[in-house]
Design goal:
Layout lengths: L6 E3 L3 H8 L2 E5 L2 E7 L7 E6 L7 H22 L4 E7 L8 H16 L23
Parallel strand pairs: 1-4, 4-5
Antiparallel strand pairs: 2-3, 3-5
Helix pairs in contact: 2-3
Length: 136
């Protein structure tokens, strides 16, 4: 039987600031930040935010409601246990078609779940520097 991890909410500013120090992924109408808590608690914690750039309070609240619903549907399946996620609304979050918003959240969660490889280190041997000035 597949047991999905518990889901809780991030509630305090320090929790949001800690998640901002983790990795983030921007997809379409959403930015998702992920912090691996590195504790033995498998609970997934979720937080939602929208800046005033997104719009007035009515628009911001609607954007956060849409993100909460998308995260509720997708986080148990695509989130990593023991992680904190912060979903940040972008300008198009409110107007984005629902299936596109779900795709944005799903692809961001999937990308954050896969460990990042070190940038461009295909081999373990260092490449020698190119010889300088051989035009004489």
């Amino acid at each position: 039987m597949d047991q999905s991890p518990d889901i809780e909410r991030l509630t305090s500013r320090p929790q949001f600031l800690a998640a901002a120090k983790g990795v983030s992924e921007a997809r379409g109408a959403v930015v998702v930040q992920r912090l691996d808590r590195r504790d033995d608690d498998p609970t997934i914690r979720l937080g939602f935010t929208a800046t005033r750039k997104v719009g007035g309070s009515v628009v911001r609240n609607r954007a956060k409601r849409r993100l909460r619903e998308a995260a509720r549907a997708l986080a148990p399946q695509f989130g990593r246990p023991g992680s904190d996620y912060v979903f940040i609304a972008r300008m198009g979050t409110v107007d984005r078609p629902w299936d596109r918003l779900l795709d944005d959240v799903k692809s961001a969660l999937t990308r954050l779940a896969t460990p990042r490889s070190k940038p461009s280190t295909p081999s373990t041997t260092p490449t020698p520097p190119a010889p300088a000035g051989q035009d004489s």
